[in-house]
């Protein structure tokens, strides 16, 4: 998409300016890059309609940036960016996935060792050259190598939140092409896995021709990898590959099941069919004489095999097949049972929208209540509020809450957990919030037992209601700090401290497996988007999906409580 191209360039411009120690421009370009990548409207459309002026009305885009965009539309290049690249010919995007390697470090690496990309960096680290630089040392060298390994594990995968908007759009467009009766994106996307390797579109049509033609000539196709009558593969412009399979309508359920997977789940299911003397494939369930038994819907397939149907999020061969055979599947939380969003930021700290703007958008999305949770404590870069500002925000929240009838707003905050487990704001202030989230934002590299103690002490604090993004992992970038997860769950259950499922696409923390473990210990979970702008409030769906993948039930998720019930629950602590 055009926006993601511009966003990528702005992100690199920000990094180049950061390398030059520019005080103001890195943040401005970074913010613009973020806002642009989240926009629904295409910048090139805006430009076509209303020129540079129209672009300048977009949030975060000033005159200079609007002119860059015009230049890019007209010439395919941005002069400033080309000049910056000539000054330091570095492949900045290649470093994007390497945790701990920021612009300042890249600058030194380039100037002292001529490192221009991750391959150079790895070579230098393996040759033990990094440690020879002033202030770098062996430890940094090891960390760099570990980060490179981590990024390699994820190579070629994309975060669910990143691909979601485009996948939904293609689903809709495909569905309206001639002769197409049904469309569904299957595979890991349908299972709502946190990252996806490729997208597996499936369509039902008696004549596959129109659907195929449409698919390979969509505006988002960068190149065609393979084309055929019933199966084609393309590379989309956001970088990910997509397949389309077209099957007759009577096979749609079978194909849906087959292409949703996962593979291990399918293998087990096929074994069950074989035991009955049958055959299961993407065209249907067949008896030993190859007679078609069923295939139109997934429900029929599972039923015929003696199993209850289960949501795609559960199909990971983690025990669901046995339970489905015994008709004992847990009833996992439904998307519409979640009433609220319990983490978001506003202009009071590092968010881009006001309390009112966030509340209005949340209401539009159907939330019944929200918690505004701006930073308090040490995070000065994230604009942590002082006491005066907090009190001002409370008055504003009360005013907006009073003025809006459709939604209730809780006064919340996200406060830092100090290295020793104490909290970065005094108890007498914490006591005045409706809801308090405690987070670890610094000193990630502590010994395991110290980190466990740190978290338990925070969990035991009577004013901490929720531990936010409990493991600290960032998908593709950071594996999270080390601690004893089961000990944390036990302490959380005992102290009625909630663990968060942070729904931000690069966090999804707790993840599916940890959610399952936490529930097993009797821990309650909360959902929060951690939205830093109103365009991120729809991420809630991603968090609910992970809750479902972790088999959470309605009773496990506090966001399913009505607002008054939640208040009571919080006050019980
Ligand atoms: P991904 O794309 O790596 O995120 O993961 P998936 O699960 O989307 O895997 P993908 O795209 O390779 O295949 C889509 C589905 O097709 C997969 O979930 C199950 C099915 N499938 C793929 N290969 C096999 C296979 O060898 N046997 C069976 N039974 N099913 C398969
Ligand atoms: Ca796939
Ligand atoms: Ca695939
Ligand atoms: Zn945080």
Characterise this structure.
- Helix 1 packs across helix 7.
- It is globular, with a radius of gyration of 25 Å.
- The protein contains 24 helices and 17 strands.
- It is of the alpha/beta class.
- It has four domains: 2-153, DNA polymerase beta, N-terminal domain-like (DNA polymerase, domain 1), CATH 1.10.150.110; 158-247, Beta Polymerase, domain 2, CATH 3.30.460; 260-325, 2-Layer Sandwich (Beta Polymerase, domain 3), CATH 3.30.210.10; 335-572, Metal-dependent hydrolases (TIM Barrel, Alpha-Beta Barrel).
- The two termini are 48 Å apart.
- The longest helix has 18 residues, at 2-19.
- A hairpin with a 4-residue loop joins strand 5 (221-226) and strand 6.
- The strands form four sheets. The chain has a seven-stranded parallel sheet with strand order 11-12-13-14-15-16-17. The chain has a five-stranded mixed sheet with strand order 2-4-7-6-5, sandwiched between helices.
- Zinc ion binds at residues 414, 439, 441, 468-469.
Give me some keywords for this one.
single chain, 573 residues, alpha/beta, DNA polymerase, domain 1, Beta Polymerase, domain 2, Beta Polymerase, domain 3, 4 domains, 7-stranded parallel sheet, 5-stranded mixed sheet, 45% helix, binds 2'-deoxyguanosine-5'-triphosphate, binds calcium ion, binds zinc ion
TL;DR of this structure?
This protein is α/β, with parallel strands linked by helices and 573 residues long.
Q: CATH topology of the largest domain, what is it called? A: TIM Barrel
Helix proportion: 40-55%
Bound ligands: 2'-deoxyguanosine-5'-triphosphate, calcium ion, zinc ion
Radius of gyration: 25 Å
H/I helix tally:
24
Give the total of beta strands.
17
Mean pLDDT: 94
CATH class annotation of the largest domain: Alpha Beta
* Broad shape: globular
The overall number of domains is 4
Instruction: Give the strand line-up of the largest sheet.
Output: 11-12-13-14-15-16-17
Structural class: alpha/beta
CATH architecture of the largest domain: Alpha-Beta Barrel
Kindly report how far apart the N and C termini lie. 48 Å
- CATH homologous superfamily assignment of the largest domain: Metal-dependent hydrolases
Uncertain regions: pLDDT < 50 for 5+ in a row? Answer: none
């Amino acid at each position: 998409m055009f926006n993601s191209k511009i966003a990528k360039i702005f992100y690199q411009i920000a990094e180049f300016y950061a390398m030059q120690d520019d005080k103001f421009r890195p943040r401005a370009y970074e913010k613009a890059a973020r806002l642009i990548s989240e926009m629904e409207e295409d910048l090139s459309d805006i430009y076509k309609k209303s020129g540079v002026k129209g672009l300048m009305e977009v949030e975060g885009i000033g005159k200079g940036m609007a002119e860059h965009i015009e230049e890019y539309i007209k010439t395919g290049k941005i002069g400033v960016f080309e000049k910056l690249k000539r000054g330091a010919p570095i492949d900045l995007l290649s470093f994007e996935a390497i945790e701990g390697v920021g612009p300042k470090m890249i600058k030194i690496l380039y100037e002292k060792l001529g490192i221009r990309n991750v391959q150079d960096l790895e070579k230098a680290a393996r040759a033990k050259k990094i440690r020879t630089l002033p202030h770098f040392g062996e430890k940094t060298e090891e960390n760099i190598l570990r980060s490179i390994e981590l990024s390699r594990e994820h190579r070629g995968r994309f975060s669910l939140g990143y691909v979601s908007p485009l996948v939904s759009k293609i689903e809709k467009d495909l569905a309206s092409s001639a002769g197409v009766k049904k469309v569904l994106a299957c595979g890991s996307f349908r299972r709502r896995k946190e990252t996806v390797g490729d997208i597996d579109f499936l369509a039902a049509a008696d004549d596959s021709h129109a659907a195929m033609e449409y698919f390979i000539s969509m505006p988002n196709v960068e190149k065609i990898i393979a084309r055929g009558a019933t199966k084609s593969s393309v590379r989309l412009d956001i970088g990910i590959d997509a397949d389309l399979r077209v099957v007759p309508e009577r096979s749609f359920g079978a194909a849906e099941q087959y292409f949703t997977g996962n593979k291990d789940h399918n293998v087990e299911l096929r074994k069950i069919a074989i035991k009955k003397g049958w055959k299961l494939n993407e065209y249907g369930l067949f008896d030993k004489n190859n007679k078609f038994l069923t295939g139109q819907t997934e429900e029929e397939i599972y039923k015929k095999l003696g199993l209850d149907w289960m949501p795609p999020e559960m199909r990971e061969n983690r025990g669901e097949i046995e339970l489905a055979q015994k008709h004992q599947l847990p009833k996992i939380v439904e998307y519409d049972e979640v009433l609220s969003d319990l983490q978001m930021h506003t202009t009071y700290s590092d968010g881009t929208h006001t309390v009112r703007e966030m509340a209005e958008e949340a209401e539009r999305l159907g939330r019944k209540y929200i918690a505004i949770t701006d930073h308090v404590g040490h995070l000065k870069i994230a604009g942590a509020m002082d006491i005066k500002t907090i009190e001002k925000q409370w008055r504003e929240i009360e005013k907006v809450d009073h003025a809006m009838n459709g939604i209730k707003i809780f006064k919340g905050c996200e406060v830092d957990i100090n290295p020793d487990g104490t909290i970065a704001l005094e108890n007498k202030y914490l006591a005045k919030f409706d809801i308090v989230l405690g987070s670890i934002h610094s000193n990630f590299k502590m010994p395991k037992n110290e980190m466990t103690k740190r978290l338990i002490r925070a969990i035991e604090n009577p004013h901490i209601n929720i531990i936010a993004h409990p493991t600290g992992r960032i998908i593709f970038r950071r594996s999270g700090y080390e601690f004893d997860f089961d000990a944390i769950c036990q302490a959380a259950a005992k102290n009625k401290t909630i663990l968060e499922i942070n729904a931000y696409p690069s966090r999804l923390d707790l993840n599916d497996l940890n959610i399952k473990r936490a529930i097993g210990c009797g821990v309650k979970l909360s959902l929060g988007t951690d939205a830093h702008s109103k365009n991120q409030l729809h991420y809630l769906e991603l968090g609910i999906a992970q809750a479902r993948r972790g088999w959470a039930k309605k009773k496990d998720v506090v966001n399913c409580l009505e607002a008054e019930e939640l208040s009571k629950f919080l006050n019980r602590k």
